[in-house]
Amino acid sequence: MLATALLNAKHVLHSASLWAQLRTATRSQLLLIGFAITDSSWLCCQIAVQQGKMSPIFALSNAWSLLFIWISGCVCGFYLGGLIKPDQLEMFGISSIAVLSMAAIAPKAAKNSIHYLLPGLTASITAIVLMMSGFNEGASVLLATLAGTLLACARHDN
Amino acid sequence: MTIEMLLVVSMAVVTAGLRLSGFGVAHFLMQFPKVKSGLLSSGFCLITSYLAVQLWEHPSLALPVCITSILSYAAKGILLPLLIGWIVAILMLNFPA
Fold first, then answer.
1. Which residue of A has its CA nearest to B44?
2. Rg, Å, chain B Cα set
3. Model confidence over A60-119: pLDDT tens digits?
4. Are the beta carbons of A99 and B34 closer than 8 angstroms?
5. What is the pTM of this model?
């Protein structure tokens, strides 16, 4: 359980990074968003932030519809898993979509706020250094994000 | 309820707790202007570190990622660059050089 908490500590950053756009949400909306938001719905929310369409209602409906799709997909996978082979899924580059979505929104975010560039660059370099040092994916992302965020805080001082 | 089911449910509760605590942490930290700018950029830092880690693990995605990023910077929307990047990724997966 402790290992799960540590590996998923990035979720604290997920919700914290969306807080500025969810300040108008009611307590019950926050509870529902916090319960349902996943990596993919966080990514959708980030896209909405860049497009200026983010609101508590968007986050709520997006998080719950994606959670429903996720659970339905898992249930279908149990029953239909034998029909689709992993290499057939790989043929369509399904696993690359999340990475490409991030590649699509990163330039938009950088364009909107140029002062994000240095912390973002620091985070990506730190992530690669941590991966090279043998850290796992989750720990590298978490520590690298913290490094970038701390740099952004420090730059505000100057 | 079996032990496995109990573990899955408790892990889901822990993860939801972490996300909710993120809101609480952000709500508290937003009072400090120094930390506020850091929190606002944390989403971008998460994206860039995810991207770096994914590219480190799957170097074959470098070209589709570059194409998607450049097109996204130049174009107005997100969907078209994403679609073009995905097509390039499919071509590279099925017809490696």
1. A120
2. 20
3. 999 999 889 888 888 887 787 777 777 777 777 777 888 898 898 888 878 777 788 899
4. no
5. 0.80
